[in-house]
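Q: Could you fold this chain for me?
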Amino acid sequence: MSHRTVFVPYRPKTILNKSKRPDHWFWTRYSAYPYIGCQHGCEFCYCREKKYSPFEDPIDFAYIIKVKENAQDLLRRILIHTPIDAIFTGDYQPAERKFMLSRRMLEVCYELGFPVFILERSPLVLRDLDLIQAIHQRAFAVVAFSVISTPESLNYDRVTALEKLAPTAEKRFTVMQELAKAGIPTGTCFMPILPGLCDDEANLEAVVRWTAYHGGGFVLASGLTLANQQRDYFFEVIKERFIDLLNLYQGAYLLGSYAPTGEWNRKIGLIIREHCLRNNIPDRQPRRVIPGDKHTLNKRMVELLANTAYSLELENAPLHRVWSFRKAAWSIEDLEQDLRLIYRAMGLAGLQRIPDIGPSMAKILEKLIKENESS
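A: Sure. Below is the predicted structure, expressed as structure tokens.
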């Protein structure tokens, strides 16, 4: 059955999603998108979940594109009254050629000094390289590419079929290289890693190697998540096209689980880390700060603590240890005072007055502060 794409212009009342603090993957606190639905139509896309998609039929996600025609003006009105922090934005699906809303939203980000993180599958992002460079000079701009397989993979054709209208991985890596040459931080979001299709070590190694070769500065990796209508939809895809994988997916997502087991994620993370080390790129995205930011040290401490929490997860450390670093990172993110000034004024006792910072964590912070002051 063929479908025809329909564009539905509308004027939402809000466009900016706000979190209390930045996440520890992309280091973005806000997100804002110009469209709902995506013509690329990747079968595994989490945006088909109910909390992201307004469509009752998951198939409509790829064919009914809701266009936020007031996106630029709405974003400007909101950002004028919003503390500056990184925004996850940009959507270069084919609709962008016609409506140009991603560019107009980037113009607002540049105008008001907001840094951006763009996650993309399309070479169309190069159209706005001039604007991305301007944002990067004023604040910072990162453009990452969603890539889950390379032409070297035995399952490349099967994965490409699941990505439907998305440009090929070769094109994405070519654009990554052009952005890197233009001085824009870029890398790979190896998401979602599909069990049985993308998780063999040869493919994991190839994605990391291709990233490094094309100038990418990081690889972020995580598995496929499935919930409610998206889960039902993707399982039908598996039954129709990859029946040989059905038992694997039924076992991986047993009893309606949202993601594969923690042990699967840990194994994948360790392999990615090993190959990133071999290729001299990190498996975490460096946190960037806006020039002149008064909380640079605090943010650096948050990055170090968050990365430690991730490393502890890979090491299968006790959960209480993982959470001690994660909660400490959140507490420091929320601090209005400079961590260095607190330490200079009151030493370890001052650090322990910060919520979720006990004696052991205070000593870790003391060490990190001294290392960063000497670096």
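A (continued): Strands lie at 6-10, 17-18, 30-32, 35-36, 64-68, 87-89, 116-120, 141-146, 186-193, 219-223.
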